[in-house]
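Task: complex structure prediction.
Instruction: return structure tokens for all chains below.
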Amino acid sequence: MRRSLFRFVDRFELCITYLFCFSLNLIFDYVKSLSVDSYILKAFLENFMNYQTLINFLFTFIVVVFHYQMLHRKKTEIYCRILVGDTILNITIRYTLECLMILGFVYLLSIAINIYLNFNLISNLYLVCIFVIYILISAVRVGKYETF
Amino acid sequence: MKLFEFFITKIFLRKVIFSIAMILLFFMANYTIFTATRLILSTFQGYQEVKSMNQEGTYIANLNPDSNIDMDAIAENGTQKVYDYLNNNFKYAFYTDGFIASLPNNDDMEISFSYMNEEYYKLNQFELSQGTDLNFDYQFNKDKEIPVLVGKGLSKTYPMGSTIKIELPVLEQSMTLKVQGVLKQNAYHSNFHALNSKNYYNFSVFLPVNQEFITHANIDLQLNGLMDIIILQTTKEKVTNLSEIMQDNLGLKFNFFSQKENFDYFNEYYLHSLKIMSIITLILVVIIICHSVWNALVSIRLMLKDFTINLLVGLSYSKLRKILYSYFGILFSINLIVIFFITAYSRYGSWLRKDAAFVTYGLFGLIGMDWFALLVVFLFDIIFGMIIVEIMLRKIKKIPISLGVLQ
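Output:
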């Protein structure tokens, strides 16, 4: 990853955003597994539990924000790389692979936590699908910065 | 104004993703606060209602959770024996509701009948918008008409002075009821065992009951009335005897909790739950604020050039502050409007479902509790907006104009 568009801060930010989304789903699953005796607490939590998927989906928007700002900031760098002989295809592939690697790493981490807590392993698989779609869309956008 | 328009259309909306992300984050925070505030408020309203009954010397019945109601095991005159014992030895407040009867009305709602005795009526002091208080001294079967109170919704079909002929399922006989008064709109009753949940009386009929009425009523009314019966001006020993009588005649174990036990229960159960709920809300809001700050800082990174160019050509920081406050004001207003519509729709949903117990009247269907929660959200938004705008300005001020322009 010598020629990666990512710096340490970018990798860290992306990790945190993915981790946040997976953790949110995990918290929902954890709360579901609790046997809450308190009627009032149950009534409060139901306001969120009933919309678990929607809330998780809305929060994935922070990943969109990350991809958007990341590519915006890197547009000069992409153009300069092309000037010194790199190709847009290679840049796109490297960018996509790195995003997928970070996603894979965070997903494995979430699976490990799910196994430890004895939760359903496929409960957050839909998040992976959403994130892969985001990565592919942002990969298409890398091509936009071929010309400055 | 022109400058503000310029910033909105040429800077903020050019990177609309940040605005959408902000709106979504604000919505989450607002929804969380709105839900928590409404629930806390509703619980305290319930608590106030119970507090008015929970006086010294008052014991409220509660069916032991281990007791199962087996109607076959209850002797035919078992409930009546309990009422005889109650009438001879105690002063008690009787209340039971949820008895649905088919009563034609303009809104096609199912009408719920609430039965209460004089003591219960006195304890609650229901406010009336028209008419006079209930009269409990009527003679069953002799008086042709029983005076009743109706909810606001029902008063359109059955106004003051009108009569209702109906076969009451609890008596299994036809009765004539006369509307003597109309309850204030949105009069409610909280569930004693879940203080945050309440039923509204807009489509209810209040029927006064006396000893004679209870004697003639079927076992459903008699047994239901015992479930939440409130024994007044008594002692622990006396209610222990009553509990034994009830167990002998009904085969059901009833607990009678004193004022202190009820308050202890509230502190232990409700206060603890409310504390946990507040902590969860606080954590969620802090997380959302952190995300919003991150989103705002990221947007500054991309919009820095636009900001600094404008600062270079004469825009002052105070004007920029005003623009940012106005921009966030718009985002917050959008959220408040969305929450307002969701609440109005949820209230209107009760009308659509013909859910008489939850139907409410109010401006756009919202009641006081909703408006108060919206006000809390509004105040929170002001604080939220101040935090974000000041952090954004600090960030902009930190970067030299020359460096920003070169970006």
